[in-house]
Amino acid sequence: MFKIKQSLDAVNYGAYFYNGNPLSMEEIVDRAVAFGYDAVDLWPHRPLTFPPDMTKGQKTKLLSYANDKGIKFAAVDACTNFMRTDHVLVPHTEKELLYVRSCCELARDLDCKVVRLLPAFIGYFWHDYWDKGYCNTAMHSRTVEVSTQDDYLLEWDSVRAGIIDSAKIAREFGVTLAVQGHPPVVNCVQDLIDLVDEVDMDNVKIGLDLPLFDHQEPDYIAKIVKTIGKKMIHSHTLGVILRYGPSGFVYASEEVVPGDGIENWLPFFNACKEVGYEGYFAYEQCAPFLMPGHKKPTIEEIDRRQKAGFEFIKSFEAQL
Fold it and tell me: By three-state DSSP, how is residue 64 classified?
């Protein structure tokens, strides 16, 4: 039997997208236990576990608390961006690397083997000029460089270099990096595969999230998972629906409970079983949503989603 090891992503309880207060990490661990999760993904940002805020004693206490509850820490989910700076005297990537070092130290101290990195994360999916390019997304307004894709290649080179430098840091702490694809530079699954192949370091692997696949055809899903194989080291579960406007125009997406979205989970889990995937699947609520009456949710709705999502994903174990 293939066990789908599930992790509760702490970002869900940072009070970013619900009315109410953030939970403590101990409260998040308690919820993971109550809802049936095997682990917790750490969110290394305020107000939760921003590494510079945590003393050695606090980390020791948190690890002991989680161990006593039978909860592992599956990954440190860092939000990073290794795109080029917009000023020569503002060394953006250097600051990112300092943050990566602090996340790797946090991972080591909390007995966590994986740090998730985003190669080029701006929060939003697409930036202002995404549709102004020529055969690729544009990084700025139309110029000769955009027409030759040199604007994109400069960003790609910067991102790749940032991942390589991060891997060298991670190696000092015995940590493996899970690189997760996300626009505006790593725009499709093949981009993610290419990036990790070009980095070509044994501690750089892939965080493979089904909701970010190009499409949800069963054969395509199976092919991607089997192509990545043992390079897959982490994954997130969430549901996504597309929001349509006049004439079928897709104007937004919305995160929903797994099972309510467009994702084709069964071929994904079957392929994960076939390649011998041993990592965790973390349920992440990382975007805003509204309740009926155009109201922001409360923490009770977050709890409901965490419980419903866990049960839905767990139900696939009997089908594998």
Answer: helix
